[in-house]
Amino acid sequence: MNHTPNSNRLHIAVFGRRNSGKSSLINALTGQDTSLVSATPGTTTDPVAKAMEVYPLGPCLFIDTPGFDDEGELGRMRVERTRKMMEKTDIALLLFEDDGTPERQWMELLREHDIPVVLIVNKKDVRQDVDSLALRIEEKYGQVPVVVSAGEKSGMQGIFDAILAKLPEDFAERTITGNRVGEGDVVLLVMPQDIQAPKGRLILPQVQTIRELLDKKCIVVSCTTDRLSDSLQALARPPRLIITDSQAFPIVYRQKPAESSLTSFSVLFAAYKGDIEAFAEGASTIALLTPQSRVLIAEACTHAPLTEDIGTVKIPRLLRKRIGEELQIDFVSGNDFPHDLSRYDLIIHCGACMFNRKYVLSRIAQARAQHIPITNYGMAIAYLTGILDKIVW
Which pTM value belongs to this model? Predict the structure, then answer.
């Protein structure tokens, strides 16, 4: 579990005022000195994350955030980072100093983001009014808060129980390949080992897909694009499914057996991490682009640009070949994503293997709210190569 990617962990963020005990609570929950604790207000200036395994929740990522009542210019910047963290939060722990306005406002924000919230009253070891405060919170929000002492590390099991009760029903049920394959099915993975492939390693989507297929008791065969024909001839029967790198779609589609379904790692992750119907609809709007249109390409990873990078080179090349060299294309990476998307006619997002599902869905929701179509790398390439209706997604 220590090697589970953060993107596949349940993201649990702690929100509250400065000195409400957020950092102490994180340390108590994780059993480690994950966050710096001090009596000085505003000690936590940036979100701090700690990955751990919590039975029976599984792999989790606990996130400590700056106080949402921070002040001054730097304070406002810290509050904005706290606000941004909601986009990645699966479950929120909200600490109440009292039942006043700040907590009410953040409760409303969390609900607007459809984030389940566990209400917490901390410092029961030093406060005399914890019971009356808990009662007022229950009456106001219709939810019984968990009363704890982070300093004494008491009441933590109550928080874990509350998190389990708030866990999204489908959190652990979603899989990369869904019901497309089952035990005994032959699955062929076509994985070009080009400049984008890390030397001596496979990229994360390939590793995760292989592991899932092995867990499903599938027969997994891997090859590079140039050995596709030989690999197909070596098989006793056509593969049930062929999963390829999206950029190899045209080559693989021309050679695939009629009995075999075809998809790509990026398309699979579009459904696994995001909203496949929204991405398919977004891909179809490529037909509406003109040379005067503007496209945003968003990459989750922050790596140095490569000579034949799929996001900054190959997709722009395909777009401009179809639409015109005048097409305007902007690029963002990592957590950078414009709040105002109105200037764009289309957003093309990567497979987002480095983001959790909540974060991807928040970007889709942001685009929808501003009526901007959004798709992903694999869906866009499938459309641009004329095979979107011939692949499974």
Answer: 0.84
